[in-house]
């Protein structure tokens, strides 16, 4: 490690310590700050993002690959794979993103009846209920104590018993939906994502956002607006951040919103796995319900497919309910949960053609997720199995 690199790591770690301190006081100031600043600051950031963009005059749901996109996706997968191989011993490999598992729970995904015609596509084509596995996790790329890692949470929903040809053939009857607790992704596209992964490998991820020659302040602010000290994975909203088809020639984003709006407060001196404990305690006592909402693209420029830093304006297209995700009361067996998490692979390309992932970040995920999943499961000796073969009726 050169002297310059050591300095960069030291600066990164100093900023990170400030973030960890903020996590302690966040529950006491966040509600007031959100009420006063979230909407105006987000509006300002999105205005800045918008004025920097140019209209590509794309049609609804039309994609436009970036130059060298395939090679960039391979480079990201290689960079993240090197990180996993360096940080984890065989038998203990974790995901490079959405790393720390807070829980894998059984759920029921129920499609609403009487949906309008523009929403009746794919799994939403008719009323029915699917069994599901739902994984709640932290952001990664490591798995420190929750209080240091829980600014942005993630969710993965795997529907079981989904009939029809899939875009990936390693699972025959699943449909995956993934999201994070922020409406925009960490990077706008795969070119910038490669830069971030290089910083992660070098131990300087915060300098990706703060670098004086190539800063990404707008993305940092957007993530910061939604990075909070969570009290439970069940008490936050999740967004897809990237678009998907809904039928033919129609793009959507989706969101999962907790129905009852309850929000607790994280303890001042929480245990390392307090989010897992909160998840287990809640589901031991009661059912939890999320509304699954979709937002249709109505303006291909202001609601872009290829730029994940843009919040699709709800005034142009409001979110509309299409399903509910019910997590019934259940007793979580920690050993079985983590064994199941090792076997499961959440990939947006586990999908019907009617829900094909759109945009360069999603196209890259097909390569990245497959390669990293194979690496992790190979290191751990837990080869991928089709979850259609699992018994979905019980608690994990």
TrEMBL record:
A single MF term (Gene Ontology): heme binding
Coiled-coil portions: none
UniProt xrefs under CDD domains: y4iL_like
InterPro entries per record: Catalase_sf
UniProt protein name: Catalase
Species this chain originates from: Streptomyces cinnamoneus
